[in-house]
Design goal:
Order of helices and strands: HHEEEEEEEEE
Helix content: 10-25%
Structural class: alpha/beta
Number of strands: 9
Largest sheet: 4 strands, mixed
Low-confidence stretches: none
Radius of gyration: 32 Å
Distance between the termini: 120 Å
Shape: elongated
Mean pLDDT: 77
Strand order of the largest sheet: 2-1-4-7
Number of helices: 2
Length: 170
């Protein structure tokens, strides 16, 4: 009896080991059938940054001979009470150099986020961050400081709106 029972025990052990090994081997299979092969690009034009040109088909010669407006400097200060100025008016197609300065005594290390132009900067107390902006789309775009929850606005206007405006002195 002992010979038969030991033989049965060995067979059961072998079958059990075989089942365990096959289940472990099956656990490491990776299903690639759901993997996305090609990623789709964003087709929604409203999601593009405001600094992206509307017409990309401009040739090099027209860029060389176009008159270039001088770059205008704009300073935005982050204070304890918010951004100064809270609204900045920019002309569509103009060249602007933006200087962001943190003068907030309470929050000495904060962020400046201007998502519409893909500008994100860390502003340290007393130091300035500089970047260039050339708006290509009309609209109102917000800039913010997430740490202090203050906001400001870039108001982009085009030349077409300018003739309707009259001087305040008339």
């Amino acid at each position: 009896m002992s010979f038969v029972s030991s033989r049965i025990a060995q067979s059961c052990t072998k079958v059990l080991c075989l089942l365990l090994l096959t289940s472990v081997a099956n656990a490491w299979e990776v299903d690639f059938s759901r993997r996305q092969v090609e990623f789709n690009k964003v087709k929604n034009e409203d999601r593009l940054p405001a600094s992206v040109q509307e017409d990309q088909s401009v040739n090099i010669l027209s860029k060389v001979f176009d008159s270039v407006e001088p770059t205008q400097d704009i300073v935005i200060m982050n204070t304890e009470k918010g951004f100064v100025p809270a609204q900045v008016r920019l002309k569509k197609g103009g060249n602007y150099r933006i200087h962001v300065v943190n003068v907030n005594n309470k929050e000495k290390n904060v962020s400046f986020v201007l998502d519409a132009f893909s500008e994100h900067h860390n502003t340290v107390f007393g130091e300035q961050k500089t970047f260039h902006v050339t708006p290509k789309t009309d609209g109102i775009f917000s800039y913010q400081c997430p740490e202090t929850a203050v906001q400001g606005k870039f108001i982009i206007y085009s030349d077409a709106a300018a003739p309707d405006r009259m001087p305040a002195s008339k």
